[in-house]
C-alpha cells in the first residue's frame, strides 16, 4: 500500500512514555537504538538532547516539517474528539485528563518539529519503510516499534509482520513492539503467529507486561532476540 501523509494520525509520544512502554533500562538507553515508525514522537529529540544515539525511520520523514505540522493541525481536534468520545477505553493514571492529554501530545509534537530539520541533516530521521531498513547487519542494539506493528493488523498481514521484525532483527540484536493491540483496542490476530514464527527460527520470543497502560488492556510488549 503506497504511503500517504493523509492517512497519518499524528500522536506524539515522549521519552518518558517510550521508557515505560518498552521497559527501557539505563543500559538500554546507553546503546544504539532504532525507532521504527516513530512519526512525530519526541523520543529522538529528547534522547539526542541527552547525547544518546537514536535513529528514527518513518516514511513520514519524506515530507517537510511544514507539511507534517499542517497534518498535526488538521487532525488534532479530530483525535481529541475521538479520545473524549471513547474515554472509557483509556486508563487515566499516567495522563489524568483529556486536556492534559492534548497539552502533552502537542508539546511532544512541537519538540519533534523543532528538532526535525537538524535531525534530518544529522541522519537521525530517515525516510524508510518497513519491511526494508537502510542499515547494515547489527548496526543497533535495539529496534523498537511503538504503535505501528500490530496496530494496523487489518492493513498488514502476518507475513508483513514477520518480514518487518526479521528485518529489525537483522539490523539490531533485539526488537521490542508495543502495544499488541490493533486499531479498536482488541488484541492483534498476528501476535501468536509472530511468536511461533520466531521460535521456529530459533529466536527468543516472549510477551511481557509493562508498567504503561493508556489504552485499556494495552500493557503488553513483545520482546524478540537471538
Ligand atoms: C500511530 S503512528 C506512531 C508514532 C510513534 N511511534 C508513537 O508511538 O507515537 C504510526 C507511524 O507509523 C508510520 N508508518 C507507516 N507505514 C510505515 C512503514 N511501512 N514503516 C515504518 N513506519 C511506518 C506512520 O508514518 C506513523 O508515523
Description:
With 226 residues, this protein is an alpha/beta fold. The protein is 39% helix and 16% strand. Helix 3 crosses helix 5 (98-121). Strands 3-2-1-4-5-7-6 form a seven-stranded mixed sheet, sandwiched between helices. The mean pLDDT is 96. The two termini are 30 Å apart. It has one domain (5-225): Rossmann fold, CATH 3.40.50. It has seven helices and seven strands; from the N terminus they run H-H-E-H-E-H-H-E-E-H-E-H-E-E. Bound molecules: S-adenosylmethionine (SAM). Residues 3, 8, 11-13, 36-39, 41, 58-60, 129-130, 146-148 line the site of S-adenosylmethionine.
List the main descriptive attributes of the protein structure presented here.
single chain, 226 residues, alpha/beta, Rossmann fold, 7 helices, 7 strands, 39% helix
Amino acid at each position: 500500500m503506497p504511503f500517504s501523509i493523509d492517512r497519518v494520525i499524528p500522536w506524539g509520544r515522549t521519552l518518558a512514555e517510550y521508557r515505560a512502554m518498552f521497559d527501557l533500562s539505563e543500559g538500554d538507553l546507553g546503546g544504539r537504538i532504532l525507532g521504527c515508525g516513530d512519526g512525530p514522537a519526541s523520543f529522538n529529540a529528547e534522547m539526542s538532547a541527552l547525547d544518546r544515539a537514536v535513529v528514527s525511520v518513518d516514511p513520514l520523514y519524506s515530507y517537510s516539517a511544514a507539511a507534517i505540522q499542517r497534518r498535526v493541525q488538521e487532525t488534532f481536534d479530530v483525535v481529541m474528539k475521538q479520545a473524549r468520545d471513547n474515554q472509557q477505553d483509556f486508563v487515566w493514571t499516567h495522563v489524568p485528563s483529556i486536556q492534559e492529554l492534548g497539552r502533552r501530545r502537542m508539546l511532544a509534537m512541537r519538540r519533534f518539529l523543532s528538532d526535525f530539520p537538524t535531525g534530518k541533516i544529522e541522519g537521525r530521521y530517515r525516510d524508510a519503510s518497513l519491511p526494508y531498513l537502510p542499515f547494515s547487519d547489527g548496526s543497533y542494539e535495539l529496534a523498537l516499534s511503538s504503535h505501528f506493528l500490530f496496530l494496523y493488523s487489518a492493513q498488514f498481514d502476518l507475513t508483513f509482520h514477520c518480514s518487518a521484525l526479521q528485518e529489525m532483527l537483522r539490523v539490531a540484536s533485539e526488537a521490542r513492539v508495543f502495544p499488541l493491540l490493533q486499531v479498536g483496542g482488541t488484541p492483534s490476530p498476528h501476535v501468536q503467529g509472530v511468536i511461533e514464527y520466531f521460535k521456529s527460527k530459533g529466536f527468543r520470543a516472549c510477551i511481557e507486561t509493562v508498567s504503561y497502560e493508556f489504552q485499556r488492556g494495552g500493557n503488553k510488549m513483545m520482546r524478540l532476540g537471538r
